[in-house]
User: Fold these one by one.
Assistant:
Number 1:
Amino acid sequence: MGWFKRLIDFFTLGSDRPIRRLIAYYVVLGAVVFLLFHFIPFFDRLLSGEHIQDITKNPQLLDDGLAAAKGKGGPIADGSSRLDLTITAVMVMMSTLALMLPVSWVFMSARRTRDFNQSIVQTLIILPIVVAGIVLVVRTSLALAFSLGGIVAGLRFRTTMRDVRDTVYIFLGIGVGLAAGVESLTVAAVLSIVFNFVVLLTWRYDFGRNVLEPTAASAWTEPLTELADNRVDAVSVPDRDLVLALSPKKAAALAKRFNRVRKILGPTKKKPRFNAILSVTTESLSEAQERIQVVLDGLARRWRLDQVITNEGKPSELYYLVGVRKEITRDRFLTAVRASAGDKVLAVDLEIGDPVATEKREAK
Amino acid sequence: MNAGRWRSGGLLGLGALSLLTACGKQAFRAQARADSIVVVQREAHFREALAHSGERDGDAPIARWELPARLKEISGLALTADGRLFTHGDERARIYQIDYRRGVIEREFDVGNPAIHGDFEAITSVGDSLYLMDSEGVLYHFAIGDSTAVPYTREDTDLGSKCEFEAMTFDPHINALLLGCKRVHDKGMRDSVIIFRWKIPHASTDTVEHIGVAFDKLVGNNGWDGVHPSDITIDPRSGNYVLVASKEKAIIEITPAGEVVFARPLPSGHSQPEGVAITRDGVLIVSDEGESSPGAITLYRWPR
């Protein structure tokens, strides 16, 4: 199908935007239909929706008295009707396939997670063709419809969809198959086009998002901040699925932002700015903070209050990131803290080294 | 994929498209309208049967369509100039359009809203309109519309005292409705088939002519007690009048002057022939009211 991809690329100017590619596909499909319509008058019948109108306008197929007398279930198919049958069936099947292909593409691309079920994708292609074939056979025959009901009842086609939208895709497949089966391809085409664009647009604009939940883009704020602060050696991706959920435009913007930050900061593996964590347990938070900060100003190259944990009914905890001067030992540092704020702190500790690496090691 | 394979694929695709186009042109250009596969098959079968009707037994029908219960008491038949077939029930003025080639009731509509009730016996088309007649000779005139109920005008021929009507058709050559009697009340005409000619539009000063064909000329060796026409139509090729008789299960052809061309029984299988029509392409259509079997319309090659 490389030629087809190239054709779509030609129409979309090589764009990877799903909506642009979808429009190009339908334009190509429309051109093919126009040619078929022009050269094969029969195709008009498949497009017109005449049959669905007939069905809704109450056409009634009369019983064939001669066939019944001969004990035959239906009319005799001669050569021309066999050709008619064959071309009708082929046209309906091919049209169904052509209309369901973009649906499967949208199914695969417009998702938040990449772990979709491959069998559903294949079902989306095959199911409508089968439905169209069944409708071609059953059509207005009540007897065949009941028979079909019996056969289907004998089969257990039950599956649990992980996503409600997957069920909607299956419903769409059935709808397209039905429309094609009653030779109303216009309805099938409109169904396919409208569905695809609505799904793509709702995905593109994240329609229906709970405002209390972070967006995909906002979930990148933290890793970007880490990068800016140079707190970690390699910026961690918060969620792999998050990357896949980003639209191409958002992903490009994000990459641009990352590159900009990296450029400003230079290489990531430079000397850490802090080499110790000072942890303090206190019941007088503000007073302890004031006194400790006096000590930090005197003994540390740089420091930053990293976290304050307040516990209801219990002492609070203070964590400082500290760049301790080389000549200052741990004991001297702790002695200075206790001397300055001894009556205000319950416990104090200093971990010297690469605090983040140590923390990671401990976490493991 | 290399260039050679591309070329081969392209040529194959082009060939397939050409074949499909050729098939499409030949097989479907003339087919402006069609239905489901079953119906398409029926039409193809009908065409084939019509084309080979000369090789078949003349009494063998081309097709027979069994009607639903609501048309068990089917009565007259009317063919429009463009080949649409209309029929109606016996007591309610509900008109049905039937595609006789494919055996499909295409649409139905009421005359009047609500539909008028009566003892309706015959229907015929005049231009784009239809006439429905009851057994008293009262005419209901209405246009063929797309709506589910159409308005009508009523006209009493005042011929109800002369006979009980059952047959009607339109003769475009004399611009008159031919109203055929099933039972004649006038003692002087009881031994004849009587057909009135009702000019349309009808002026009060217009005289109502009639033709009579004596039973003797019609019965012949058939052993009938009499002849009770249930519908009449005009053979579009010869201009002769063709009648069916319900009680006798007979088909009769007479000239407009009243000369008998033939009078013979219909082939077996007719329970109660109530309507007759002949298409321009030579198909005789006979409708039968159902008794133990459902109502039906049967198609034969014409002339047989």
Number 2:
Amino acid sequence: MTDPMGPWRLHLAPFLRFSAVCLLGTIVLFPMYWMLVVALTPTGFSRALTGFVPEQLSFGNFVAIFTERPMLRWIVNSVVVATLASALSLLFGTSCGYALSRLRFRGAGLLMMVVLVTQMMPATSIIVPLYILFRDLGLLDTVQGMVVGHISLVVPLAIWMSKGFFDRIPPDLDGAARIDGCTRLGAWWYVALPLALPGMAAIFIYGFVTSWHDYLFAHALVHSQELWTAANGIASFRGEYFTLHELQMAAALVFALPVIVMFIVMQRWIVSGALTGSVR
Amino acid sequence: MPGVRFEAVTKRFGETTVLDGVDIDIAEGELAVFVGPSGCGKSTLLRMLAGLDDVSSGRIWIGDEVVNARQPRERDIAMVFQSYALYPHLTVEQNIGFPLRMTGVPRHERRRQVEAAAALLELTPLLDRYPRQLSGGQRQRVAMGRAIVRNPAVFLFDEPLSNLDAALRLQMRLEIARLHREFAATMIYVTHDQVEAMTLADRIVVLRDGRVEQIGTPRDIYTAPRTRFVASFIGAPQMNLLDATLIEGAGSSTLARLGSADVPVSLARAAPSGTRATLGLRPEALVPGGGGPFGLIGTVRHAEYLGSMLYLHVSLDDCGQTVVAAAPPNRAVQVGDRLGLRFSADDVHVFDEAGYRISDGRPEASPSHSPAGQPGQAPVGDP
């Protein structure tokens, strides 16, 4: 029996799919578009916008955030803190993850659960004890303190993620490497690590973005303006009585760029099928 | 090339004992095949020899040195894994040369040795490819190339052909046999495939539940299985095992009552009358309408034509058990036909209730130089 709705169904389904994609795309992308519009509007004129396109384009906001505010300094601080925090988290995470993946020892499962539980606690719940601890250790208002704080945010998931990546690498490869002349560390370095590169790239990006976006730790652990990260800097455009929306949006746009660039640079590492051919 | 010795080797995982006091002596230059069903501990034994698993107790010798505490890289062994375990991020050339690189062999010397190994295994055109670009058989050859390039004291093979199709498996089996001849190295080969075991081995080690059931040449194992398990595990189709009762006397005058037939059997030790026993008859020992002095009658339930052989599944009248008999392929037999099966008393294997061989007949057995093991005991001399 032929379906009378057949031709409709044939055309309707792709149309509905396309519409859904457009709708979702608009919801996700419009705030960014509006950020761009406001950033390109002359300072003080964003409230006068009546349409979806700026009436006149101005790059003055971008110039202002670099000349009148230490935006460059804040970006550099963010880059330093995020790079150090994600690199150190990667180092801790991969070494712990590899050990948990390959070594059999009592309490390994419990350890994994404890690591996961730390991730379930909101960061706000540990900020006060962390503040007191850092004050006693002299880490308040230092880049090192901020890096350590961010590592505590990233490492638990880095351990879980890297264990997952190493679990997917057949243990026979480590065994073969150890028979072929490697120590355990050598097997990790020459075989497991190169194969886990895509996963490590993902962990690094996760760590970088987490640290880059953090406002709570950066705000609570650092007071000096010269040590502010860009997240702190952007917040400073909001005053008690008024907010410089145009400058803030310009700063937010600049703030987003490094992360986008890093995604583009590192995405070639995040490739699937790296293990094809090793087994069977 | 040194030999290998397992001395009272035991392996426990928590409360579970996987290997229990295993004693095996493998001579210099010998190709020993460990065979047994899944979970019998054969791969664990190999991994312990490789140093990838710890030994719970006992000692493992390579040559005249105990290697229990030695790291895998210090044991002068090479291993071909069931999964091939090729390094996916390295080319064929880099894979084969990896052990040489790790031992600090200079680049030009490495290149020379890799090319020699590749030529031996017909891998030369594939040296620049990655494992993912190779077929299963090619990957297997690369794994073997990586093993032979370092010229180890002992080669270990852990079910290396189990992922290949039948034709390729035969080809690679011949390849391994050729390598064994050319290198004259001590080789240990683990498999659950009895055809591989029978065709490759100088000696077979049959394992079951973490214990050695029997050690012997393929001919020994086939013609004089030491236990009912070995009798049923080695041989395809497997040996027919029939319940019987020993009814008279001892030694060569013993009769075994099988249905309505009384079969004289020769026992290695006396057994009281009425002892329950299992008689073993290989399919090829049961000849349909043949000239043997003893006979069983039954009905053909199923016929399997294999081209070179016709296997008949016959339900016996006397005891109701089904046996498999091998007939010439051109024999005209229909399902439901009545059939008489003849056999010779020399072809009958007798096992006691515990499953140990009590008959002493060893038809066609060749003189053996090899030690053999009772289940769970240290190797002893041949019967």
